[in-house]
Amino acid sequence: MNPIVFVVDDDLSVREALSSLIRSVGLQVQTFASAKEFLAFERPQVTACLVLDVRMPGLNGLELQRELARGDRPLPIIFITGHGDIPMTVRAMKAGAVDFLPKPFREQDLLDAIAHSLELDSVARQQRAELAQIQTRYDTLTAREREVVALVVRGMRNKETAAELGITEVTVKVHRHNVMEKMGVRSLPALAGMVKRLQPPEGGHRA
User: Which of 6, 102, 149, 207 gets the most CB atoms within 10 Å of its CB?
Assistant: First the structure.
């Protein structure tokens, strides 16, 4: 399925103008009159981005941004506003917005921001898919195999790992072989890279 651009703005004329512009470059677009309407929509599993008005009745743009950030499917966001101010821009950008365009803006500026946002989302979706695959493989490891992995990726040799776990060196070698097979890797650096990707960022939780 082709990438899609979501537009959330309470002004019908703005929604229609943006929809026409975005479609003119061959992109799919879906518009919403409110943040609540967008949140109720079941988003398809495709590359996408969100063009979002800041000031709207009910849930405003910044509040919708925070709501989406709590989920497991974040979206690149381009804010548009006719009432922008510096503190608002700073809050939006600190919270991860890709761009912040004050109305009236150049059409090309918006199209450039959309192209950049879709590229970011495509890369992020690929990374999430790879991570999910690594996690699925890691979940097949036994408790003992995970213990061996934890020590091996820290640089421990087979003899040291055996001593640490109270098992024979031959058993460690068997576990290492099984781990490499299950994880689909041929080298310890590759295995270590996979394990590192499964660890949450320091001071936080993996998204």
Answer: 149
Q: What are the φ and ψ backbone dihedral angles of 99, each rounded to 5 degrees?
A: -155, 165
Give 158's contacts (C-beta < 8 A, 6+ positions apart). Answer: 169, 172, 173, 176
Q: Mind listing the pLDDT tens digit for each residue in 76-95?
A: 999 988 766 667 777 777 77
Return the structure tokens found at 19: 């929809």
Picking from 80, 49, 194, 188, the residue whose alpha carbon sits closest to that of residue 133 is 194
Q: What's the count of helices (H) and strands (E) in the chain, helices before strands?
A: 9, 5
Sketch out the chain's domains with CATH numbers.
Answer: 4-126 (3.40.50.2300), 140-198 (1.10.10.10)
Q: Which residue has the tokens 């949140």?
A: 39
Query: Cis before residue 74, ω within 30 degrees of 0?
Result: no
Model pTM score: 0.76
Please provide the DSSP assignment of 54-122 as one string.
S--SSS-HHHHHHHHHTSSS---EEEEESS--HHHHHHHHHTT-SEEEESS--HHHHHHHHHHHHHHHH
Q: What is the pLDDT of residues 150-169, one digit of tens each?
A: 999 898 999 999 999 999 99
CA 102, 108, 114, 120 dihedral sign is: negative
Beta-carbon-side half-sphere exposure of residue 109 (alpha carbons within 13 Å): 12
| CB hemisphere CA count around 121 (13 angstroms) | 24
